[in-house]
Amino acid sequence: MKIPYFDFRAPSTLEEALSIMDDYKGGARVLAGGTDLIPIMKYGLDAPDTIMSLKKITDLRGIKLENKEINIGAMTPLADLLSSHIIKENLRALHQAVEAVAAPPIWNVATIGGNICQNSRCFYYNQSKTWRIERPPCLKAGGNACHAVPKGKKCFSVYSGDLAPALIALKSSVFVERKGRSRILSLQNIFSGNGTAPFTLEKEELLTSIIVPLPDKGTGSSYVKMRFRPSVDYPLLSVAASVSLDGSKKIKETTLVLGAVGPAPVVVAAAGKLLRGGTKDTVDFDALGEILRKGTQMVDNLALPGSYRRKMIPVIAKKAIRAAIE
Amino acid sequence: MKKSQKQLISLKINGQEYELAIHPNRTLLEVLREDLTLTGTKEGCDDGVCGTCTVLLNGAPIRSCLYLAIEAQGKEVTTIEGLAEGERLHPIQQAFIEHGAIQCGYCSPGMILTAKALLDKNPTPTEQDIKLAIAGNFCRCTGYNKIVTAIKAGCQSAEGGQ
Question: Is there a single domain that holds both residue A208 and residue A250?
């Protein structure tokens, strides 16, 4: 599978990169680690005229803990996240999420920013040209059909990043820059919920860093992922949990985030109310399961049927909540 | 620069410098195999899943099918051809032969390079460390047990300076 031809740009400063983004009006596709973009290009799903690699911008790498905030540069490789004591000691859900991403050779190249900004996936979309030629183009490929949900009018492709659900559970924000301007928004808000265009960022904008507030002493977090092969597969379902306990070990605050349930990670706000005041042993997981299944758009577009994945939500959520408390 | 134009790049592979004119869309795997005939690096899935195309970049294992050759400039690339010193095999290569860790041999270059990177970082790995390190390298013949045994033995003989 050959990658289509492209112009290659490799700026060595952020200013230069933002200028290129501005000049090309979003026509320059950003290459971080490449572990998501390169297979997409090999499959002929994307053929950008220009690729802009960020690998030379060393300022975009690094993990800092300052003023009770952990700041992670977007180009920090996953291997650096795993070896960081700051992450391991304070952000357990993120550490577990990184461990759950593919295998060690991918950790050496893939970056946190690239992992967050990866494209959504679908069994009918992420296939070779030869495979796809048998069917008319789907909505995500610019056509009118949905092969996962016949007569479906919207795209049900699944956001399959592991890091974003964990980071959302940890209340992260992202720093987004464009030439002459910058803004901070909560990580959850970069997701559009639209499978054909999963992100709300403007074409000239670049996600440059992730800001995670240092969790309180009584807060624990975890990330649990369901998949066939632990060493390579994308999630079929995942749950990130962050649970704060009060002095008497009762649950004070919970953030539950579901991954691989639709085009964006889903924050289940109602779960917090249900769990408040309970303990690890008194939580009503059946009632929680009912709440969790609402608001998901799981259809038959991954390696397991949507109905099965939906049934597994309470099971995986239970594991995640218990792990966060322990 | 127009996208149909080749660019001049220099790569350092197994300690040797190469000057090449390539299109930026070429992966490191394609350049190694097709331009430099370093065919010890194998192409498997070409999709970043199987690990047969593993090479070391600055000592760390990466998938060469997911890495643009143009981005490997200024870095040290090690392929399986760079492991033996003349006729003398690397202790891990020797251990793979002695412990029957090679059957069809297709995964071996990637597997051995991954093991070498582990050994360089951690000379006394546990069985768990070995299993984690090779988690991204598929073998469809051996059932992995012999590979784990060979890596353990290879680490011990390298440690003993044999």
Answer: no
